[in-house]
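RECORD TYPE: inverse folding
INPUT: structure tokens
STRUCTURE:
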């Protein structure tokens, strides 16, 4: 019989390539689906704690979605060819298909090595792109947590961007994308907090400041206290703030 495995190695080869073949088919179907109807992405993203304006800009603001769909099609087609060659070559003892399979796998290994080299070479460019993107979200959408004479509360921003930045700065003990100077271009947050009844101008958001017990944020936010809040807000300098100008 054509597809009766005669050894364990042959069986493993068949099973492995069945997985490859099914994976490739799934990627092709998903790629076509995204090109034909991208509303599913909006529906999924709508369940995330992000505002509709942020979601729509992320989906439609760039061509990443269509590019991603084409990548899925190419990757799916590749998996189909590799899986098909290995599967039918092993099942039907086709030396030609097995040679094609071995050649493709060898090329794949070479491409993986090349991809690793490219990743190293373009590391700085990727970092620059990410820094630019993150700085843009910070400056365009961040409204910030509020603080009024000891009453510390999360932002009312429904997009989720503000809470995300606040949580990241506290947990990662950082301030901004690169350093505190990133906040100079942020225009949506109030840049002022009431401390002991006195409005205090701030150069950095309150979540850049060092907390006595960061584990209380955000579940016990009403119990959060700061090391030296006035110094932190007015100057943004260590040790009162998580800031280091590089």
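DESIGNED SEQUENCE:
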């Amino acid at each position: 019989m054509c597809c009766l495995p005669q050894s364990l190695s042959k069986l493993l080869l068949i099973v492995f390539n069945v997985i490859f073949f099914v994976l490739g088919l799934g990627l092709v179907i998903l790629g076509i689906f995204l090109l034909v109807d991208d509303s599913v992405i909006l529906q999924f993203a709508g369940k995330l704690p992000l505002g509709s304006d942020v979601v729509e800009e992320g989906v439609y603001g760039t061509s990443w979605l269509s590019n991603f769909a084409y990548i899925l099609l190419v990757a799916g087609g590749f998996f189909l060819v590799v899986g098909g060659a290995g599967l039918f070559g092993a099942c039907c003892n086709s030396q030609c298909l097995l040679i094609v399979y071995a050649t493709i796998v060898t090329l794949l290994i070479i491409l993986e090595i090349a991809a690793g080299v490219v990743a190293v070479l373009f590391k700085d460019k990727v970092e620059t792109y990410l820094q630019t993107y993150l700085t843009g979200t910070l400056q365009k959408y961040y409204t910030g947590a509020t603080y009024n004479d000891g009453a510390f509360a999360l932002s009312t921003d429904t997009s989720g961007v503000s809470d995300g930045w606040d949580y990241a700065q506290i947990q990662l003990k950082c301030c901004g994308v690169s350093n505190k100077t990133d906040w100079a271009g942020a225009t949506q947050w109030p840049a002022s907090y009431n401390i002991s009844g006195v409005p205090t101008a701030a150069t950095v958001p309150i979540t850049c400041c060092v907390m006595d017990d960061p584990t209380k944020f955000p579940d016990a936010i009403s119990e959060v206290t700061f090391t030296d809040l006035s110094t932190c807000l007015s100057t943004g300098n260590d040790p009162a703030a998580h800031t280091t100008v590089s």
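NOTES: The helical segments are 8-36, 39-45, 52-60, 64-91, 95-121, 123-141, 161-172, 229-235.
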